[in-house]
Amino acid sequence: MKKFFVSLLLALLPLSSFAAKLLIPAEFSVVRVNGEEFSSSFILQETEVNLTTGQNVLVLRYNELFKGDIDDSQQTIKSESFILLFSVANDNDLKFSFAKPIDKSAAQEFSKKPVVNILDRNGSKLAVINQSLSRYNDQVMQETMMRRQEVVKKSLESGDQTTFTKTGPNNLTMLKYWWSQASDMDKQEFIKHLNTTEQQQF
To answer: In whole angstroms, what is the distance from residue 43 CA to residue 65 CA?
Structure first.
């Protein structure tokens, strides 16, 4: 059984090869890339992001400096964190596109709901889900609660209380969930722990 889990975990490890690179303009900070925290420079500059084949999730934040109302002062216009969810094929020529605000007033409007596009090598827009991170998290939570409520409803209607108690996630499901939340270093340490435990049993 432990050998099965080790094989499963190794299969879930991210591939080192990348399908494409995407240059994020200096007006945007990269928060996370495919669930991994992204270390950004404090200096506003373009950021190169490696994308994998298949689905990618970027968490970004718009922030741009403008001259303040007081002489020689500066004001930073920021947005809430938002996600870009899209799929990538073997295309190394992707381009980040957005309508750059021309002044502070336009930037304040843009920050309320940043709209960006990702273009392929032919200039065509990729299908992108673009929404605030908080709204995305709320939707995921609502969908989870709705599924859970359906289970409870069916249990109450059938009068079988064991239906509800047995519908929780099994060990493999929870293992996959926590694996998806772990960092690469945590994954390597866990695999090392499984190998050590297995060797001690022989």
So the answer is: 11
Q: What is the DSSP letter of 28?
A: E
Phi, psi for residue 30 in degrees, rounded to 5:
-90, 120
Residue 82 backbone dihedrals phi, psi, to 5 degrees: -135, 160
Beta partners for residue 67, in sequence order: 74
Query: Residue holding tokens 């303040």?
Result: 68
pLDDT 10s per residue in the chain (202 long)? 544 444 544 444 444 456 788 999 999 999 989 888 887 665 667 889 998 888 888 999 999 888 766 666 788 899 999 989 888 887 667 999 999 999 999 999 999 999 999 998 888 999 998 888 877 676 666 666 666 666 656 666 665 555 444 444 555 555 665 666 666 766 777 777 777 766 666 5
Domain ranges within the chain, ordered by starting residue: 15-127, 135-200
Give the sign of the dihedral formed by CA 65, CA 41, CA 91, CA 82.
negative
Contact status, residue 100 vs residue 27, Cβ threshold 8 Å: yes
Q: Which amino acid is at 170?
A: N
DSSP classification of residue 22: E
Bridge partners, residue 169, by sequence: none
* DSSP letter for each residue of 38-83: ----SS---EEEEE-SEEEEEEEEEEEEEE-SSTT-EEEEE---EE
